[in-house]
Automatic annotation (TrEMBL):
SMART domains: Elp3 (SM00729). Pfam families: Radical_SAM, Radical_SAM_N2. It comes from Sorangium cellulosum (strain So ce56) (Polyangium cellulosum (strain So ce56)). One of its GO terms (molecular function) is iron-sulfur cluster binding. This is Radical SAM core domain-containing protein. InterPro entries: Elp3/MiaA/NifB-like_rSAM, Radical_SAM_N2, rSAM, rSAM_horseshoe, rSAM_sf. The lineage of its organism: Bacteria, Pseudomonadati, Myxococcota, Polyangia, Polyangiales. PANTHER family: RADICAL SAM DOMAIN PROTEIN (PTHR42731:SF5), SLL1084 PROTEIN (PTHR42731). Residues 216-435 form the Radical SAM core domain.
Length: 496
């Protein structure tokens, strides 16, 4: 995309935004997202930090994203939406990183801007790279080779505190020292691989909500707001389980409703366990009666009732989406899931009863201990559900994450995952729609989720080689570990 074409695209998108906070201030930050605009502007965390910076006296931010056609002819540096300036012009680039595979986007964003991707290759003349985001709840060590400092966990107020340090520090070295003294800020040049604990913001600051509604996004023109933060459940694979940051923190119904603009016609209720909110049915029905289309980021099958599904249908739901998680009842027990066959069967019945087009179920394959017999149980059970209502399966390979009880488990292996997927597809052909994310890229994610700085360097090598799966495989093979990463039954090793 040429500079003029990029500018035209940016101006068109700005014209379609509602709620943008235009502000001039002496200290300006490039708030950047290592994926394109459509994804970045659908991230509530990114928008929350935008709002927080814009509220700080003497400080402002300009948004930047990975170019839409990056890698397919982009011939200029990423420029900000507010000022049409290259991000290399700013003293600080603040990055929000959601998950492991976005590390490639970090490399591309910085290098397109003419900034060395590796922190050790940057000088005082280069922008300071401050990172945060959902990845920090799990394992940001591979990110540490690119970021000068990383805010761990909830950055609602900590981001601005760190930016004040960067604004006021007399030198880069002084800034690193001052940031390293802040609780929950990880400075690799000072801390090595010793990461501080994740931060928890004051509950009085909840909920996060999006100041901008944008048209050209994954969640077009949707007002996003937290119904709750965290989770009260103990699922063994989940980073946001009840032991993380004090479990589930609920936003009162009245507070939610007063923050949602009267002119919002699409509302997204966000959280790890939205359907566990004690007033969720009332919230959804109230919004539906306002004329809103409502989306929930998580629906648990054991919470679905006739009243709840009726409210969802009134709010525009045509597909009832919930989590099956494991292929069998035995596997779900190992994951400490509350979903039982009766809950999923009831979900199918409610979807049909309320005139929904289908039931969509999310689940994982390759969970530790899973066998072909578990997959066959899934085939039989989903076949039964398909007699009630059309069923679609959204499947992801199990990927162990740090800060969960299953962080030391093995990735099942690309071939194993693909064989299980083939078994599911054959068994459910003509009975259910089966779609799965790539087993190859799940393997890459698993290596990074267990990795350290060596894996971060491998990302850089892979991106420079072209960014294909084979490029990642070659880069990982060069890492000297007691047991190097393998495509077959990968052992997830401790970093360091």
């Amino acid at each position: 995309m040429s500079r003029s074409a990029m500018t035209t695209t940016i101006r068109r998108r700005l014209a379609g935004e509602i709620g943008r906070i235009d502000k001039q201030a002496p200290f300006r930050v490039a708030l950047s997202y290592p994926s394109p605009y459509r994804a970045g502007m659908s991230s509530l965390g990114f928008l929350q930090i935008y709002k927080t910076i814009q509220a700080e006296p003497g400080m402002a931010c300009e948004r930047a994203f990975l170019p839409d056609d990056e890698g397919q002819g982009a011939d200029g540096p990423p420029i900000t939406y507010e000022g049409l300036r290259p991000i290399s012009d700013f003293p600080v680039i603040a990055l929000s990183v959601a998950y492991e595979l976005e590390l490639a986007g970090v490399v591309r964003l910085l290098e397109l801007a003419g900034i060395p991707a590796l922190r050790e290759e940057r000088s005082f003349r280069d922008p300071f790279v401050l990172a945060g985001g959902p990845l920090t709840f799990s394992n940001p060590l591979p990110l540490a080779v690119f970021a000068d400092a990383i805010i761990m966990g909830e950055a609602d107020t900590l981001a601005v505190e760190a930016l004040r340090v960067l604004r006021d520090a007399p030198s880069r070295e002084a800034a690193l020292d001052a940031l390293a003294a802040l609780p929950h800020v990880f400075v690799p040049a000072r801390h090595g691989a010793e990461m501080p604990p994740v931060a928890q913001c004051d509950n009085a600051l909840l909920p996060a909500w999006s100041p901008i509604r944008a048209e050209e996004t994954e969640l077009s023109n949707m007002f996003l707001i937290e119904a709750e933060r965290g989770c009260s459940r103990g699922c063994t694979y989940c980073v946001m389980r009840r032991s993380t940051n004090g479990g589930m923190r609920i936003v009162p119904k009245e507070r939610l409703l007063e923050l949602i603009p009267e002119d919002a016609r699409r509302v997204g209720l966000v959280g790890a366990a939205v359907s566990d909110h004690p007033k969720i049915v009332e919230v959804v029905r109230t919004l539906a009666e306002r004329g809103c289309e409502v989306g929930l980021s998580s629906l648990r099958p054991d919470r679905l009732t006739d009243e709840f599904v009726g409210a969802l249908r009134l709010a525009g739901y045509k597909t009832l989406t919930t989590a099956m998680d494991g292929t069998s009842e035995r596997v779900r027990e190992t994951l400490e899931r509350r979903a039982r066959p009766r809950h999923l069967q009831r979900a199918a019945e409610l979807a049909r009863q309320h005139g929904m087009n289908r039931l969509k179920l999310y689940l994982m394959v390759g969970v530790p201990g899973e066998t072909d017999a578990d997959v066959d149980e899934c085939v039989s059970f989903v076949t039964e559900l398909s007699r009630i209502v059309p069923v679609a399966l959204g499947i992801a390979p199990f990927c162990p994450k740090r800060n969960t009880p299953l962080h030391g488990a093995r990735f099942a292996g690309i071939d194993v995952v693909n064989k299980r997927l083939d078994r599911l597809r054959r068994g459910l052909r003509g009975r259910a729609d089966v779609r799965a994310t790539s087993a190859r890229w799940a393997w890459v994610e698993a290596v990074l989720a267990a990795g350290g700085e060596a894996e971060g360097h491998a990302v850089l090598q892979a991106v420079h080689a072209g960014g294909s799966f084979r490029d990642y495989e070659r880069a990982f093979e060069k890492i000297k570990r007691p047991e190097p990463p393998r495509r077959q039954s990968l052992p997830l090793l401790a970093a360091g």
